[in-house]
Amino acid sequence: MDKKFFHEFIERGLVKNNRDNTPKARHEEMPLPEKPYNPQAPIIKLTDPDILENPDVGFLELVECRSSIRSYTNEPFTINELSYLLWCTQGVKQMLSDRVTQRNVPSAGSRHAFETYLFIDKVEGLKPGLYRFLAIGHVLQPVDTSDDVKERMHSCFNKVKMFEDAAITFIWAANMPRMEYTFGGRALQYLYIDAGHVCQNLYLAAYTIKAGVCAVGHFHDYEINEALGLDGENDFVVYAAHVGKV
Ligand SMILES: Cc1cc2nc3c(=O)[nH]c(=O)nc-3n(C[C@H](O)[C@H](O)[C@H](O)COP(=O)(O)O)c2cc1C
């Protein structure tokens, strides 16, 4: 590891340097808990989390049998199953205020700085393409369902076969100002730690519905940010996961 880079990274985030140097400490306005959505694009309702089934899987089985799975069958997911996976990974349990969400995963300072994008290939009733999950309303919105979007996303994921075979690829993009609001120079550390919690819940939830997951840290950053319409500075992809039936 480049020592200078590491030193600068740590210095930027030192609690003592940071304490009075955050937007929160300066009493600036708190960022929105979700990026604005496209009012022109349709909204697709997902199954209400209150009526999702609770699979009967023992906790130790779940923990011990979790593993990364890289080949999948062609079986599609139902909207119920997709709703369940989204609820377990980013579901909003309550609004603590109009700017702060409490979700099914932990997040530093409850900042919950992720937006979930999905490349959907095999979900009953949904046209393949790129979608965004709007966590507060628990709904989906199509982002790009053009004919060549799968090919473009495949290239973002280094043309790996598991992307081609996956029914759904989860893509978690950070909104940096949301995390910086409370943590200033320490925000980046927390974003990458938060991402691990989200993906772990995906692994565990998928196991309970006989689906497999493989976490993915290997993607082309510039390409994928561009494909999602993210600027790569305030908003950027940090983590992804392929999911399919096994
Ligand atoms: C941060 C992170 C990034 C990963 N990135 C990839 C990846 O890009 N491609 C891949 O095939 N597996 C990836 N994996 C999966 C690991 O290779 C896998 O977790 C590891 O081999 C241990 O296997 P297990 O998950 O079955 O216990 C990643 C896992 C983590 C936690």
Tell me which ligands are bound.
flavin mononucleotide
Q: Write down how many β-strands occur, each being a DSSP E stretch of 2 or more residues.
A: 9
> Number of helical runs?
9
Average pLDDT metric: 96
Largest sheet: 7 strands, antiparallel
Q: Widest sheet: strand order?
A: 1-6-5-4-7-9-8
Estimate nothing, just give the exact number of structural domains.
Answer: 1
Helix content: 25-40%
User: What fraction of residues sit in β-strands?
Assistant: 15-25%
* Terminal-residue CA separation: 38 Å
Alpha carbon gyration radius? 18 Å
Secondary-structure element pattern, one letter each: HHEHHEEEEEHHEHHEHE
Backbone structural class: alpha+beta
CATH architecture verdict: 3-Layer(aba) Sandwich
Q: Low-confidence parts lasting 5 or more residues at pLDDT below 50?
A: none
Key traits:
246 residues; 7-stranded antiparallel sheet; alpha+beta; binds flavin mononucleotide; two-stranded antiparallel sheet; NADH Oxidase; 9 helices; 9 strands; globular
